[in-house]
Design a protein that fits this description.
The complex is a heterodimer of chains A (119) and B (106).
Chain A lengths: L2 E5 L2 E3 L5 E8 L8 E6 L5 E7 L6 E3 L7 E6 L4 E6 L8 E8 L6 E4 L3 E5 L2
Parallel strand pairs in A: 2-11
Antiparallel strand pairs in A: 1-3, 3-8, 4-5, 4-9, 5-6, 7-8, 9-10, 9-11
Chain B lengths: L8 E4 L5 E6 L9 E5 L6 E4 L13 E6 L2 E6 L8 E9 L2 E4 L3 E5 L1
Parallel strand pairs in B: 1-9
Antiparallel strand pairs in B: 2-6, 3-4, 3-7, 5-6, 7-8, 7-9
The chains are: A mainly beta (119), B mainly beta (106).
Chain lengths: 119, 106
């Protein structure tokens, strides 16, 4: 069974940092591109970042470029999102997501981890 | 940047057919997919590659995509289908989501 389990969320002050993790199981993690998607309270889904299979190629939404860094450890089946210079508008539930092979769609989502940026 | 536009809300009576549209420039040239999200839950893929249903998704869910508009259609709508629905497409290697549509079954 495919599972994606996020952790690392919490309350952080503006300007602070946080590192999210996503533990993957039930599939060959190293062969899938992975994404982060966030959802502010009461709002819609917003794509944040993606990383290719070997971690060499990454892409970011303009709103987080230069502040967030996505990475992965294929030996530990784990995806990361390092978030620096956090702002109030970064407050959201952050989902780890897998794009299914040949589907061009996100076929599995984690349960999400809440990040709250507030003083 | 690429944008997808959905109506904020759609209402449908139980047993009837409801449709949710998603508009974007030349969207028909891209693959569109749809996600269902119920309160407090993670999204679930209900349509991928315009009109394909994942295993476990009821046949009453169908999709189409042509020109500038993708459409999610739910036939014989049930109370359990009440949820937020999001369309999504790819712009290069970035995912673009529509703003979401709240489907009310009443």
């Amino acid at each position: 069974e495919v599972q994606l389990v996020e952790s690392g969320g919490g309350l952080v002050q503006p300007g602070g940092s946080l590192r999210l993790s996503c533990a993957a199981s039930g599939f060959t993690f190293s062969t899938y591109w992975m994404h982060w998607v966030r959802q502010a309270p009461g709002k819609g889904l917003v794509w944040v970042s993606r990383i290719n299979t070997d971690g060499v190629s990454t892409t970011y939404a303009d709103s987080v470029k230069g502040r967030f860094t996505v990475s992965r450890d294929n030996a530990r089946n784990t995806l990361f999102l390092q978030m620096n210079s956090l702002r109030a508008e970064d407050t959201a539930v952050y989902f780890c997501a897998r794009v299914g092979a040949g589907t061009f769609a996100i076929d599995y989502w984690g349960q999400g981890t809440l990040v709250t940026v507030s003083s | 940047s690429y944008e997808l536009t959905q109506p904020p809300s759609v209402s449908v009576s139980p047993g009837q057919t409801g449709s949710i549209t998603c508009s974007g420039d030349k969207l028909g040239d891209k693959f569109a997919c749809w996600y269902q999200q119920k309160p407090g839950q993670s999204p679930v893929m209900v349509i991928y590659q315009d009109n394909k249903r994942p295993s476990g998704i009821p046949e009453r869910f169908s999709g189409s995509n042509s020109g500038n508009t993708a459409t999610l259609t739910i036939s014989e709508t049930q109370a359990m289908d009440e949820a937020d629905y999001y369309c999504q497409a790819w712009d290069s290697s970035t995912a673009v989501f529509g703003g979401g549509t709240k489907l009310t079954v009443l």
